[in-house]
Design goal:
The chain has 12 helices and 18 strands. The protein has 348 residues and is α/β, with parallel strands linked by helices. It folds into 2 domains: 180 residues, Quinone Oxidoreductase, Chain A, domain 1 (Alpha-Beta Complex); 135 residues, Rossmann fold (3-Layer(aba) Sandwich), CATH 3.40.50. The strands form 4 sheets. Strands 3, 5, 6, 9, 10, 17 and 18 form a 7-stranded mixed sheet that branches. Strands 13-12-11-14-15-16 form a 6-stranded parallel sheet, with helices on both faces. α6 runs parallel beside α7 and α8 runs parallel beside α9. The two termini are 27 Å apart.
Length: 348
Amino acid sequence: MTATMKAAVKLKPAPKSTEVMKVPVPEPTPDEVLIRVKISSICGTDVHIYDWDAWAAARIKPPLIQGHEFAGVIEKLGSNVKGFRKGDYVSAEGHIACGRCSLCRTGNAHVCKSVSILGIDRGGAFAEYLTVPATNVIVNDDDLPLELATMQDPLGNAVYTTTNANVPGKTVAIFGLGPIGLMAVALCRGMAARKVIAIGHRNKYRMDLAKKVGANLVLRSSDTLADEVMDATSGEGVDEVLEFSGAETAVQQAIKVVRPAGGIHLLGLFPKPLSLDISEFVTKGLSMYGIHGRLMYKTWMQMGGLLKSGNVNLKPILTHRFPLDDYNKAMEVMRSGDCGKVAFPMEA
Protein backbone atom coordinates (compact mmCIF):
# COMPACT_ATOMS: atom_id res chain seq x y z
CA MET A 1 0.00 0.00 0.00
CA THR A 2 1.28 3.47 -0.92
CA ALA A 3 2.10 5.64 2.10
CA THR A 4 0.05 8.83 2.37
CA MET A 5 0.54 12.23 3.96
CA LYS A 6 -1.50 15.30 4.79
CA ALA A 7 -1.06 18.21 2.38
CA ALA A 8 -2.73 21.50 1.42
CA VAL A 9 -3.46 21.10 -2.30
CA LYS A 10 -4.46 23.89 -4.68
CA LEU A 11 -7.02 21.92 -6.68
CA LYS A 12 -8.45 24.38 -9.22
CA PRO A 13 -7.39 27.52 -11.13
CA ALA A 14 -9.57 29.78 -9.00
CA PRO A 15 -9.42 31.86 -5.79
CA LYS A 16 -9.03 29.82 -2.60
CA SER A 17 -9.78 26.31 -3.98
CA THR A 18 -7.29 24.67 -1.60
CA GLU A 19 -8.11 21.53 0.38
CA VAL A 20 -6.18 19.79 3.14
CA MET A 21 -6.27 16.17 2.08
CA LYS A 22 -4.40 12.87 1.99
CA VAL A 23 -2.03 12.40 -0.95
CA PRO A 24 0.79 9.92 -1.67
CA VAL A 25 4.15 10.57 -0.02
CA PRO A 26 6.56 11.53 -2.84
CA GLU A 27 9.43 9.22 -3.67
CA PRO A 28 12.86 10.85 -4.03
CA THR A 29 14.74 10.38 -7.29
CA PRO A 30 18.35 9.12 -7.05
CA ASP A 31 19.61 12.72 -6.64
CA GLU A 32 16.96 13.90 -4.16
CA VAL A 33 16.17 13.54 -0.47
CA LEU A 34 12.80 13.05 1.17
CA ILE A 35 12.29 15.52 4.03
CA ARG A 36 9.80 15.19 6.87
CA VAL A 37 8.52 18.73 7.36
CA LYS A 38 8.50 19.96 10.97
CA ILE A 39 7.40 23.52 10.20
CA SER A 40 6.54 25.58 7.12
CA SER A 41 5.52 29.21 6.67
CA ILE A 42 3.53 31.36 4.28
CA CYS A 43 5.20 33.62 1.72
CA GLY A 44 3.54 36.49 -0.13
CA THR A 45 3.82 34.35 -3.26
CA ASP A 46 1.54 31.79 -1.61
CA VAL A 47 -1.06 34.52 -1.10
CA HIS A 48 -0.91 35.39 -4.81
CA ILE A 49 -1.64 31.73 -5.59
CA TYR A 50 -4.40 31.58 -2.99
CA ASP A 51 -6.04 34.70 -4.45
CA TRP A 52 -5.40 33.42 -8.00
CA ASP A 53 -4.25 36.75 -9.39
CA ALA A 54 -3.00 37.32 -12.95
CA TRP A 55 0.53 36.15 -12.10
CA ALA A 56 -0.75 32.90 -10.58
CA ALA A 57 -3.09 32.26 -13.50
CA ALA A 58 -0.18 32.58 -15.92
CA ARG A 59 2.33 30.49 -13.90
CA ILE A 60 0.63 27.90 -11.69
CA LYS A 61 -0.66 24.53 -12.91
CA PRO A 62 -3.02 22.92 -10.36
CA PRO A 63 -3.15 20.55 -8.64
CA LEU A 64 -0.22 21.88 -6.63
CA ILE A 65 1.10 21.59 -3.09
CA GLN A 66 2.33 25.13 -2.30
CA GLY A 67 5.01 26.28 0.11
CA HIS A 68 8.77 26.86 -0.15
CA GLU A 69 9.67 28.05 3.37
CA PHE A 70 10.28 25.17 5.76
CA ALA A 71 12.52 23.18 8.07
CA GLY A 72 12.52 19.47 8.77
CA VAL A 73 14.60 16.30 8.92
CA ILE A 74 15.85 14.01 6.19
CA GLU A 75 13.75 10.86 6.10
CA LYS A 76 15.24 9.11 3.06
CA LEU A 77 18.18 9.60 0.69
CA GLY A 78 18.21 8.93 -3.04
CA SER A 79 20.69 6.28 -4.19
CA ASN A 80 23.19 8.86 -5.55
CA VAL A 81 23.11 11.23 -2.56
CA LYS A 82 26.30 11.62 -0.55
CA GLY A 83 27.21 13.87 2.37
CA PHE A 84 23.86 13.74 4.17
CA ARG A 85 22.37 11.35 6.71
CA LYS A 86 18.88 10.32 7.69
CA GLY A 87 17.83 12.56 10.58
CA ASP A 88 19.82 15.63 9.47
CA TYR A 89 18.02 18.86 10.46
CA VAL A 90 17.66 20.80 7.22
CA SER A 91 16.07 23.58 5.19
CA ALA A 92 16.55 24.18 1.47
CA GLU A 93 17.09 26.79 -1.21
CA GLY A 94 13.74 26.93 -3.01
CA HIS A 95 15.15 27.95 -6.42
CA ILE A 96 16.33 24.85 -8.27
CA ALA A 97 18.73 26.06 -10.95
CA CYS A 98 19.71 24.02 -14.01
CA GLY A 99 23.43 24.10 -13.16
CA ARG A 100 24.40 24.02 -16.83
CA CYS A 101 23.69 27.45 -18.34
CA SER A 102 26.18 30.32 -18.56
CA LEU A 103 24.48 32.10 -15.63
CA CYS A 104 24.79 29.09 -13.34
CA ARG A 105 28.40 28.53 -14.39
CA THR A 106 29.41 32.13 -13.70
CA GLY A 107 28.05 32.33 -10.15
CA ASN A 108 24.63 33.71 -11.08
CA ALA A 109 22.41 30.70 -10.47
CA HIS A 110 19.96 32.94 -8.60
CA VAL A 111 18.86 34.33 -12.00
CA CYS A 112 18.99 31.04 -13.94
CA LYS A 113 16.47 31.24 -16.80
CA SER A 114 15.49 27.58 -16.36
CA VAL A 115 14.83 27.76 -12.63
CA SER A 116 12.19 25.54 -11.04
CA ILE A 117 10.78 26.70 -7.70
CA LEU A 118 9.50 24.62 -4.80
CA GLY A 119 5.78 25.08 -4.25
CA ILE A 120 5.38 26.90 -7.56
CA ASP A 121 6.69 24.62 -10.31
CA ARG A 122 6.80 21.42 -8.24
CA GLY A 123 5.35 20.10 -4.99
CA GLY A 124 6.15 22.16 -1.93
CA ALA A 125 6.23 22.25 1.85
CA PHE A 126 2.60 22.67 2.91
CA ALA A 127 2.68 18.96 3.53
CA GLU A 128 4.12 16.42 5.92
CA TYR A 129 6.83 15.44 3.41
CA LEU A 130 8.50 16.88 0.30
CA THR A 131 11.38 15.95 -1.99
CA VAL A 132 14.26 18.33 -2.75
CA PRO A 133 17.40 17.92 -4.88
CA ALA A 134 20.31 17.23 -2.55
CA THR A 135 22.22 20.11 -4.14
CA ASN A 136 19.68 22.53 -2.64
CA VAL A 137 19.65 21.14 0.90
CA ILE A 138 21.11 23.22 3.75
CA VAL A 139 22.00 21.55 7.05
CA ASN A 140 20.89 23.75 9.96
CA ASP A 141 22.74 24.19 13.23
CA ASP A 142 21.23 21.86 15.82
CA ASP A 143 20.38 24.78 18.11
CA LEU A 144 18.61 26.89 15.44
CA PRO A 145 14.95 27.22 16.56
CA LEU A 146 12.40 25.89 14.09
CA GLU A 147 10.71 29.31 14.08
CA LEU A 148 13.88 30.84 12.63
CA ALA A 149 14.83 27.92 10.42
CA THR A 150 11.57 28.18 8.48
CA MET A 151 12.22 31.89 7.78
CA GLN A 152 15.49 31.37 5.95
CA ASP A 153 14.18 31.59 2.40
CA PRO A 154 12.70 35.11 2.86
CA LEU A 155 15.41 36.04 5.34
CA GLY A 156 17.88 35.30 2.57
CA ASN A 157 16.14 37.93 0.40
CA ALA A 158 16.65 40.44 3.21
CA VAL A 159 20.26 39.37 3.82
CA TYR A 160 21.10 39.72 0.12
CA THR A 161 19.52 43.20 0.07
CA THR A 162 21.23 44.45 3.23
CA THR A 163 24.65 43.03 2.38
CA ASN A 164 24.40 44.48 -1.12
CA ALA A 165 23.90 47.87 0.57
CA ASN A 166 26.87 47.31 2.91
CA VAL A 167 24.88 48.79 5.80
CA PRO A 168 27.35 48.90 8.75
CA GLY A 169 27.81 52.49 9.89
CA LYS A 170 25.25 53.84 7.41
CA THR A 171 21.87 55.52 7.71
CA VAL A 172 19.32 53.29 5.99
CA ALA A 173 15.69 53.85 4.98
CA ILE A 174 13.53 50.74 4.54
CA PHE A 175 10.36 51.07 2.48
CA GLY A 176 7.75 48.32 2.94
CA LEU A 177 7.22 46.58 6.26
CA GLY A 178 5.97 43.19 5.18
CA PRO A 179 7.83 40.23 6.69
CA ILE A 180 10.94 40.68 4.50
CA GLY A 181 11.07 44.42 5.19
CA LEU A 182 10.80 43.68 8.91
CA MET A 183 13.64 41.18 8.61
CA ALA A 184 15.71 43.88 6.91
CA VAL A 185 15.03 46.24 9.82
CA ALA A 186 16.29 43.61 12.28
CA LEU A 187 19.30 42.85 10.09
CA CYS A 188 20.31 46.50 9.70
CA ARG A 189 20.16 46.97 13.45
CA GLY A 190 22.10 43.75 14.07
CA MET A 191 24.69 44.69 11.43
CA ALA A 192 25.42 48.03 13.13
CA ALA A 193 23.72 50.47 10.81
CA ARG A 194 24.06 54.00 12.17
CA LYS A 195 20.32 54.68 11.98
CA VAL A 196 17.44 52.54 10.71
CA ILE A 197 14.38 54.42 9.40
CA ALA A 198 11.42 52.12 8.73
CA ILE A 199 8.68 53.43 6.44
CA GLY A 200 5.23 51.87 6.40
CA HIS A 201 2.00 52.83 4.71
CA ARG A 202 -1.25 52.14 6.56
CA ASN A 203 -0.49 49.05 8.63
CA LYS A 204 0.04 50.08 12.26
CA TYR A 205 0.54 46.44 13.34
CA ARG A 206 3.63 46.09 11.18
CA MET A 207 4.89 49.57 11.97
CA ASP A 208 4.80 48.61 15.65
CA LEU A 209 6.66 45.38 14.82
CA ALA A 210 9.34 47.42 13.04
CA LYS A 211 9.98 49.33 16.25
CA LYS A 212 10.11 46.09 18.22
CA VAL A 213 12.78 44.52 15.99
CA GLY A 214 15.07 47.53 15.98
CA ALA A 215 13.97 50.54 13.94
CA ASN A 216 15.30 53.81 15.38
CA LEU A 217 12.49 55.73 13.69
CA VAL A 218 9.21 54.57 12.13
CA LEU A 219 7.48 56.85 9.65
CA ARG A 220 4.27 56.62 7.65
CA SER A 221 4.49 57.17 3.92
CA SER A 222 2.88 60.53 3.03
CA ASP A 223 3.39 63.69 1.00
CA THR A 224 5.63 65.04 3.78
CA LEU A 225 7.81 61.91 4.05
CA ALA A 226 10.83 63.38 2.24
CA ASP A 227 10.88 66.37 4.57
CA GLU A 228 10.60 64.09 7.63
CA VAL A 229 13.51 61.93 6.47
CA MET A 230 15.66 64.97 5.73
CA ASP A 231 14.86 66.37 9.19
CA ALA A 232 15.84 63.03 10.74
CA THR A 233 19.18 63.03 8.91
CA SER A 234 20.18 66.68 9.53
CA GLY A 235 19.39 67.51 5.92
CA GLU A 236 21.84 64.96 4.52
CA GLY A 237 19.47 62.20 3.40
CA VAL A 238 20.05 58.48 3.91
CA ASP A 239 23.05 56.57 2.60
CA GLU A 240 21.02 53.63 1.31
CA VAL A 241 17.38 52.83 0.56
CA LEU A 242 16.08 49.25 0.73
CA GLU A 243 12.78 48.93 -1.16
CA PHE A 244 10.44 46.03 -0.36
CA SER A 245 6.98 47.48 -1.05
CA GLY A 246 6.67 47.28 -4.83
CA ALA A 247 5.02 50.72 -4.80
CA GLU A 248 5.85 53.37 -7.39
CA THR A 249 5.62 56.15 -4.79
CA ALA A 250 8.27 54.41 -2.70
CA VAL A 251 10.83 54.59 -5.50
CA GLN A 252 9.89 58.20 -6.23
CA GLN A 253 10.39 59.04 -2.56
CA ALA A 254 13.60 57.00 -2.41
CA ILE A 255 15.18 59.18 -5.09
CA LYS A 256 14.33 62.23 -3.01
CA VAL A 257 15.55 60.97 0.37
CA VAL A 258 18.81 59.25 -0.59
CA ARG A 259 21.92 61.39 -0.45
CA PRO A 260 24.04 62.12 -3.54
CA ALA A 261 26.09 59.05 -4.57
CA GLY A 262 23.81 56.83 -2.45
CA GLY A 263 22.20 53.54 -3.41
CA ILE A 264 18.67 52.22 -3.94
CA HIS A 265 18.21 48.46 -3.64
CA LEU A 266 14.99 47.02 -5.05
CA LEU A 267 13.55 43.67 -3.97
CA GLY A 268 9.87 44.62 -4.33
CA LEU A 269 8.14 43.69 -7.60
CA PHE A 270 5.96 46.30 -9.29
CA PRO A 271 2.57 45.65 -10.90
CA LYS A 272 3.18 48.10 -13.75
CA PRO A 273 5.96 50.25 -15.30
CA LEU A 274 7.16 53.16 -13.15
CA SER A 275 7.24 56.89 -13.79
CA LEU A 276 10.39 58.30 -12.18
CA ASP A 277 12.39 61.55 -12.14
CA ILE A 278 15.45 60.07 -13.81
CA SER A 279 17.08 63.50 -14.13
CA GLU A 280 17.29 63.79 -10.34
CA PHE A 281 18.57 60.22 -10.19
CA VAL A 282 21.32 61.06 -12.70
CA THR A 283 22.36 64.43 -11.26
CA LYS A 284 22.60 62.94 -7.75
CA GLY A 285 24.86 60.19 -9.11
CA LEU A 286 22.73 57.43 -7.61
CA SER A 287 23.04 53.68 -8.11
CA MET A 288 20.07 51.31 -8.34
CA TYR A 289 20.27 47.55 -7.88
CA GLY A 290 17.80 44.79 -8.64
CA ILE A 291 17.78 42.08 -5.96
CA HIS A 292 16.33 38.66 -6.82
CA GLY A 293 16.29 35.58 -4.60
CA ARG A 294 19.49 34.74 -2.78
CA LEU A 295 23.05 34.39 -4.05
CA MET A 296 23.56 30.65 -4.25
CA TYR A 297 25.03 29.88 -1.86
CA LYS A 298 26.95 32.88 -0.58
CA THR A 299 23.83 34.41 0.97
CA TRP A 300 23.08 31.19 2.86
CA MET A 301 26.58 31.19 4.36
CA GLN A 302 26.22 34.84 5.44
CA MET A 303 22.77 34.14 6.85
CA GLY A 304 24.04 31.20 8.87
CA GLY A 305 26.67 33.42 10.47
CA LEU A 306 24.17 36.16 11.26
CA LEU A 307 21.77 33.69 12.87
CA LYS A 308 24.61 32.20 14.91
CA SER A 309 25.73 35.64 16.10
CA GLY A 310 22.55 36.22 18.11
CA ASN A 311 22.64 39.89 17.08
CA VAL A 312 19.50 39.87 14.92
CA ASN A 313 16.13 40.12 16.69
CA LEU A 314 13.94 38.01 14.40
CA LYS A 315 11.75 36.06 16.82
CA PRO A 316 9.02 38.75 17.11
CA ILE A 317 8.43 38.51 13.34
CA LEU A 318 6.79 35.09 13.55
CA THR A 319 3.47 36.14 15.05
CA HIS A 320 0.93 33.42 14.21
CA ARG A 321 0.92 29.61 14.19
CA PHE A 322 -1.81 27.35 12.82
CA PRO A 323 -2.21 23.61 12.31
CA LEU A 324 -2.21 22.73 8.60
CA ASP A 325 -5.89 21.81 8.90
CA ASP A 326 -6.57 25.54 9.44
CA TYR A 327 -4.87 26.46 6.16
CA ASN A 328 -7.65 28.76 4.96
CA LYS A 329 -7.84 30.56 8.31
CA ALA A 330 -4.07 31.10 8.24
CA MET A 331 -4.29 32.51 4.72
CA GLU A 332 -6.97 34.98 5.74
CA VAL A 333 -4.77 36.22 8.61
CA MET A 334 -1.90 36.65 6.16
CA ARG A 335 -4.15 38.51 3.74
CA SER A 336 -5.32 40.87 6.50
CA GLY A 337 -1.78 42.19 6.99
CA ASP A 338 -2.22 42.20 10.76
CA CYS A 339 0.59 39.71 11.23
CA GLY A 340 4.26 39.07 10.67
CA LYS A 341 5.16 35.59 9.47
CA VAL A 342 2.45 32.92 9.69
CA ALA A 343 3.63 29.33 10.21
CA PHE A 344 2.33 25.76 10.17
CA PRO A 345 4.05 23.69 12.88
CA MET A 346 3.59 20.10 11.72
CA GLU A 347 4.22 18.53 15.11
CA ALA A 348 2.61 19.34 18.44
